[in-house]
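This entry is retained here.
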Amino acid sequence: MDNHYLHKINQRILENINTTANIGIIIASPSENPPYKYHWIRDSALVMRTIIDMYKTTKDSLYFRLIINYIENESKLQKLKPISGLGEPKFNINCTEYMGAWGRPQNDGPALRGIILYKIIELFKYKYDILIDTYIIPIIENDVEYILENYNNTSFDIWEEKEGWHFYTRFVQLKCLQDSLKYRKLLKNIDIDRLQRVYTELSSSIKDHINENTIISSFDTSGEISKYEDAANILAFSHVDYDETLLKLVPIEYIHHTCDNLLQFFRQKYKKDELYLIGRYKNDTYYDGQIWVICSLALAQVYVELYTRKNIVRYDSPMHRSKSNPNNNYIEIANQILEIILTLDTNLIIPEQFNPITNEYFSAQKLTWNYSELYVLYKLLNP
């Protein structure tokens, strides 16, 4: 696969950034039915991963400007008074509060924004101290303070459907707090002893999501298991950069249970053996729970990571063996997934969901998060 794919991915991302008059706004999708033309805190942070990498790779001033715009925009949004404070999931594209009914709070947003801002600090290391001290650190401190106050409270999951305690949310919160401990000298307005205490407590709480060698995705507001296998579990590992300290708490091989069970479910749903694509979770009713692009790309990403870890005993799953892949090779699976997504549409106008049998598209088109995960996978397989 040549780099014209990478160029197309970049194009689609930039189109969804440069779509409003307000700098720093990153729309989730241009789709208005369903209504996705908003700036999500979670989605925009994940998209910024690719912008940072584009800048590292090209040194193009365009990407530098987009990073600065993002910082300015998030600083502006933090000063607004939305319904759920910093747990507010999305904002209008004119930089005002969205006041309609929604699943709120969503406590992964502040954590993901913190994680990405620490990446920007690392990118700007030994440069732009005034920018870091004046803009970036205050945003981080606000987000960290929010996590410290709300880490043990319920919130909505990344699919914005269920309130409770979620593995994904807790895992990205842990990563943000861990990064905060690393950069503690920069955080003048955070009680570091409290930060360390909450990090320790959250490290203990994440173990509630482990049952033997499997991961429980969510508990409801009563503390009962509400969801077991969920693609959010897979996304979580990628979004904490496979942090070694966190993997000591939740070993990456525990993700096999989620991967296998989702593969099995969607193979049965579409009556298609050797299908290496997944949706969000079993019995999803949103657009009848089709194949999700971000979930399938996350599956491929985690398979690449598992393949590169020589310390992990090779996992022999019947879900992975096929006529086209008799050796149970993770990289072959990842490349198959990448090929399918890249060839859905010649112009990469790809949907949130699709039916792998009919190729019918569902829900929002040109989902920015799609392109972010696609960029990550493409770079992993084409370094």
In short: The first strand starts at residue 39 and ends at 40. The chain has a mean pLDDT of 93.
